[in-house]
Amino acid sequence: MSRAASTAPQSQQSTRSPAASILHQPTAVWAVAFACVIAFMGIGLVDPILPAITRDLEATPTETEMLFTSYLVVTGVAMFFTSWISSRIGAKRTLLIGLALIVAFALASGMSQSVEAVIGFRAGWGLGNALFISTALATIVGAASGGTSSAIILYEAALGLGIAIGPLIGGLLGSLSWRGPFFGSASLMAVGFAAIVVMLKTDAPAPVPIRLSAPFRALARPALGVLAAAAFFYNIGFFVLLAYTPFALVPLGLGSAITLGLVFFGWGVSLAVTSVWVAPLLTRRMKRTHVLAAVLPLLALDLVAAALVSGSAAGLVVCVIVGGLLLGVLNTVLTECVMEATDLMRAVASSAYSGVRFLGGALAPPAATLLAAAFGPAAPFFAAAAAVLVAVAILLLGRAQLHRANGVVDRLEEAEAIGAGDS
């Protein structure tokens, strides 16, 4: 297929309503989406048990937050290489290796006797997560019916559902022991592994090998570079809200695993709802970049509000839920922009963008607890709001590079695509 031929349908499909097609997917897509739900549970799974791990393993809050950092750093760095790996061994094998690593390291985390061991095993979990997540996004986009937008909405719905269920299961199992959520996650991942084995056919035709340098070279593309840089700072806000807020709630009387699990279950449900229904509604009426420019400042305001009410349990919970609503829109629209902003292979674009994005998130949890210790519980939320505003500034300064992310392909680019022939 020529690039011109592939570009035009993508732009048309991006504006199509997903309602009619999102539920009518091949079984392989549902298998990957189910495994995505379980994989994304790993992000929020530890939220309700952070105070318990701190207490039982005699760790400081900053040491405990390293459970997020080790996981996200390894995930981010490994993301740059996942497209190279999957293009040589195939998407199915890459997904299965990723799932197997998650099962192994989740079990090891649950059997750990020190916070240092949990931090190390979470790093291994992050490697499996990187192999799975980056490949899963490209697999769903490539195999789903209804176009890119429908596929991304399905992926983001899996993300939202996983993030919602993760804290709930973490809270329920964590009320028995902080080890329970790790064993539960390993068991569910084993089910996801079996679903991929049975339902996802072997890659056909054989994948075209991708250069090891491809994701790094991809970031030199102005559009992808702008979006990745913005996502780096956006993810700081995301993970301050997710990873630091449990510690802010503990002194306010909301420190039990089940209570924190319910709070962040509400956050994740809010994220899933806006990912699936609100984001498509907005992008049908506004350009994607306009949606980002409108919603990112609202997230910054929500984080400022969290700082101002950091002494109120009810106020913080409301800010967490509102944050989930905003994050659902932003996750979906940013991912759509990345998938449409260039003519790069989707696996390459996903690897490059996701690598930068997760590295941004890795900085936030320990930095937040250090700021809280030095300047008080409101400081991390103010810092997160500032980071989100940096993301807004990057998008505004780079808006000239993002026409294609809005489904606009100029005539020169279209002519070059026609002249390039088969991709």
Automatic annotation (TrEMBL):
Q: Is Transmembrane helix given among the entry's keywords?
A: yes
Q: What's a single GO CC term here?
A: plasma membrane
Checking Gene3D superfamilies in the record gives:
MFS general substrate transporter like domains (1.20.1250.20)
**GO MF annotations in UniProt:** transmembrane transporter activity
Q: What is the membrane topology listed in the Swiss-Prot or TrEMBL record?
A: Multi-pass membrane protein
Alphabetical list of CDD domains matching this protein:
MFS_YfmO_like
Using the record's annotation, list all stretches that form the Major facilitator superfamily (MFS) profile domain. Answer: 28-403
Going by the UniProt record, its keywords in alphabetical order are: Membrane, Transmembrane, Transmembrane helix
Membrane-spanning ranges = 27-46, 66-87, 94-111, 123-145, 152-176, 182-202, 223-245, 257-279, 291-309, 315-334, 355-375, 381-398
Q: Does the keyword Membrane apply?
A: yes
Q: Where in the cell is it found?
A: Cell membrane
Q: What is this protein called?
A: MFS transporter
